[in-house]
Design goal:
Layout (H helix, E strand, L loop, with lengths): L1 H22 L16 E7 L2 E6 L9 E5 L4 E4 L5 H10 L8 E5 L5 H4 L10 E5 H8 L7 H6 L3 H14 L3 H22 L8 E3 L2 E6 L2 E7 L9 E5 L4 E5 L14 H11 L6 E4 L9 H22 L4 H7 L19 H12 L4
Parallel strand pairs: 4-5, 5-6, 6-7, 11-12
Antiparallel strand pairs: 1-2, 2-3, 3-4, 8-9, 9-10, 10-11
């Protein structure tokens, strides 16, 4: 009996450990995951709902949201690299020991989806169809957005090395050395990315029930990209909005500004009290949606007129004047906007936008 019991117990433990490992993400430390201190802060905004932000010691890209349910957890957005996702796996153990079984990508941008590859195959990674198709086609790792933010890392390293070489005091040299180290670590992390497309898609609506918690994944129309998903927790009145809204001005390089205004108007009908943006702190003032709609409307009007007047995009970016919105966006000090948003408007008018 003892011999057979021992064999049974051994087989059971091997089976149990194998199942447990399959439920957990790969914990092998990926390239570019070297950092000191804590990479993330976890702000509990509801029962088991955490707004997660980077601290700056590691490049992590976007915010994410962790929703801890009775048996497992849901993560909204997987950050900018395997390294960032590895850091989150490591640090979230202070919050919960429950495995992430569902990942929701709000849109296809690299800073929101390039941690996908760290999850086991049986984890559901969910997105709008457009987002899934863009990632599958390799568009999260190329194009205007990627080139501007990731493609220029070597140039930034070279610039910092030149500044280090010309620095004269030890404290300034130390600052530049730290910045160079962070950028080199960032490059290692992004070089290790192998974009992984979601394995479950939707077009308008998905709904999951986890015990008493209801989670809705919704699409209200094009805006920041062609496939922006929002995650709505109706009982908690929390809306996880991706980059459809930010505490500042959202990136417009892949946007549909005119449609974005209408998309925001439709989602206003939801009964929410707290907005968790893809960048910045939680938002509780719904008027911030109105402010951004006004900004988008004005920007679209001015950019369209510039195109009609035959003004080149780079010149238009210098002339467009958004200072009327400075009271809501204090970083606006003078005329001039990002060239990427203007280029996007011109593409939309020319019918060449993807």
């Amino acid at each position: 009996m003892n011999k057979w019991f021992s064999r049974y117990l051994f087989c059971f433990l091997v089976f149990f450990m194998g199942c447990n490992q399959n439920n957990q993400p790969s914990m092998e430390k990926p390239p570019g995951a070297d950092y000191d201190g804590q990479a993330f802060t976890f702000q509990e905004v509801g029962d088991g709902i955490y707004h997660i932000k980077g601290t700056g010691v590691l490049s992590v890209g976007c915010n994410s949201t962790l929703i801890v349910n009775e048996r497992d957890a849901v993560l909204v957005d997987s950050h900018i690299s395997p390294a960032a996702m590895w850091a989150l796996f490591t640090e979230m153990t202070a919050i919960t020991d429950k495995p992430i079984r569902y990942v929701i990508n709000t849109h296809f941008h690299f800073d929101h989806v390039h941690g996908n590859q760290m999850f086991p195959e049986d984890v559901k990674i969910i997105s709008h169809t457009y987002t899934r198709d863009m990632i599958a086609a390799g568009n999260s790792k190329r194009g205007r957005s990627y080139d501007a933010f990731i493609g220029r890392i070597p140039d930034r390293i070279s610039e910092l090395e030149q500044q280090l070489a010309s620095a004269t005091d030890d404290s300034t040299k130390s600052v530049f050395r730290d910045r160079i180290r962070l950028q080199k670590n960032y490059k290692e992390a992004t070089d290790a990315v192998m974009p992984r497309a979601p394995n479950e898609r939707f077009t308008e609506r998905l709904q999951y029930k986890f015990g008493d918690r209801l989670i809705q994944i919704l699409f209200f129309g094009r805006g920041h990209t062609g496939g922006d998903a929002v995650v709505f927790l109706p009982e908690e009145k929390i809306l996880i909005i991706g980059d459809l809204l930010s505490t500042g001005i959202s990136y417009l390089g892949d946007a549909y500004p005119e449609e974005w205004v209408r998309t925001l108007e439709r989602l206003k009908k939801l009964d929410f009290e707290t907005i968790l943006p893809g960048h910045g702190d939680p938002i509780e003032d719904r008027k911030k949606i109105d402010h951004f709609q006004a900004y988008l409307t004005d920007f679209w009007k001015q950019a369209v007129q510039m195109r009609k007047d035959g003004v080149e995009a780079d010149e238009a970016a210098k002339r467009i004047d958004m200072t009327a919105h400075a009271s809501h966006y204090p970083r606006i000090k003078e005329a001039g906007v990002s060239i990427f948003g203007v280029q996007r408007v011109y593409e939309l008018m020319e019918g060449t936008a993807k």
